[in-house]
Amino acid sequence: MSNGQVRVAVIGTGDIGRGWAALIAAAGWPVALYHHHGRNPGDALAEIADRARRLVELHRADSATVERGINLITVGRSLLEACRDAQWIIEAIHEDVKAKQKLVESFEAAAPEARVVSSSSTAVTPTQLVARATRPERCMIVHPLNPPELIPLVEVVPGPLTDRVLIELVRGWLRAIGRIPILVKKPILGNVVGRVAAAVWREAIDLVLQGVIDVDDLDRAVSLGPALGWAAAGPYLTYHLSAGDEGFGQFFQHLNQTFESVWGDLATWSRIDPEQQRTLIQNVERTYEGKLTTNREARDRRLAAILRGLEDVKSEK
């Protein structure tokens, strides 16, 4: 095995698991797959290869490295076979806390030599994850954004018993495959990105349901509005830069007054009733009907272009 490579096992071949596998294969690392429900993951293999090769088209990976990584993909007929030689196990099954706990417990026998066991969860805390584990020190949440092979940010959420050395080890592995890890110092439901997304998503839903704006214009309002600015600077730096010579302290007082009036008028509900759900689903499906493949390809091209732009500016510093 080449220096710097890590043997990875991805448990779960849903969308996130496939994204992890495509990313790891594109880095030329060996990855073993195991379908949690025991079905034949043949369709997953084809999609993983396609997603990895797509990174070459988007100038996010090297063709020779991708092909080498694809050739190194294996499929375990059992959990033991998939995890046997893995240094890093990535759990990517559905968001079911009991199923995740049982799976982590099973890694004690199936993967005694693995250095790290990570979960891709956003709805399970590290403490919940290791409730049945006998080696909680090697476990943590390592949560990617979707699609994992394109969006570089990854949240690393250790638990109170996680080995600090292993946290840094995982952050190093993530950097080696082109990810940007951020450390969530205090576990919280939804992690950081999920909570910010949930807040924006609730308001986006509410604005459409109230008839303030159509689905496609809402998407434009976010993607070409705050999301574009945040991609370049994030919310804190964006407002700090807006303060200019006034200084952030004085600017914040004005900003806070403006936001307080808006905050008082924002949606506060925590559930959508069935009729509202049907209305929202119909609006979205009607807006984007028959455009799924085209829109996905366009989104990927935009993401790749944004990343190249950010990297080009960073290289000029």
**What name does the CATH topology of the largest domain carry?**
Rossmann fold
Estimate the mean pLDDT confidence.
93
Q: Which regions contain 5 or more consecutive residues with pLDDT less than 50?
A: none
Order of strands, main sheet, comes to 3-2-1-4-5-6-7-8
CATH class (first level) name of the largest domain: Alpha Beta
Count of helical stretches: 13
Shape: globular
Please provide the count of β strands. Answer: 8
Structural class: alpha/beta
Biggest β-sheet strands, sense, barrel: 8 strands, mixed
Second CATH tier, the architecture of the largest domain: 3-Layer(aba) Sandwich
Tell me the β content.
5-15%
Characterization of the model:
Helices cover 55% and strands 11% of the residues. It is an alpha/beta fold and 317 residues long. An 8-stranded mixed sheet has the order 3-2-1-4-5-6-7-8, with helices on both faces. Strand 5, helix 6 (126-129) and strand 6 form a beta-alpha-beta unit. It contains 13 helices and 8 strands. The protein has 2 domains: 8-189, NAD(P)-binding Rossmann-like Domain (Rossmann fold); 192-316, Orthogonal Bundle (N-(1-d-carboxylethyl)-l-norvaline Dehydrogenase, domain 2), CATH 1.10.1040. The radius of gyration is 21 Å and the shape is globular.
List keywords for this structure.
13 helices, N-(1-d-carboxylethyl)-l-norvaline Dehydrogenase, domain 2, globular, alpha/beta, single chain, 317 residues, eight-stranded mixed beta sheet, Rossmann fold
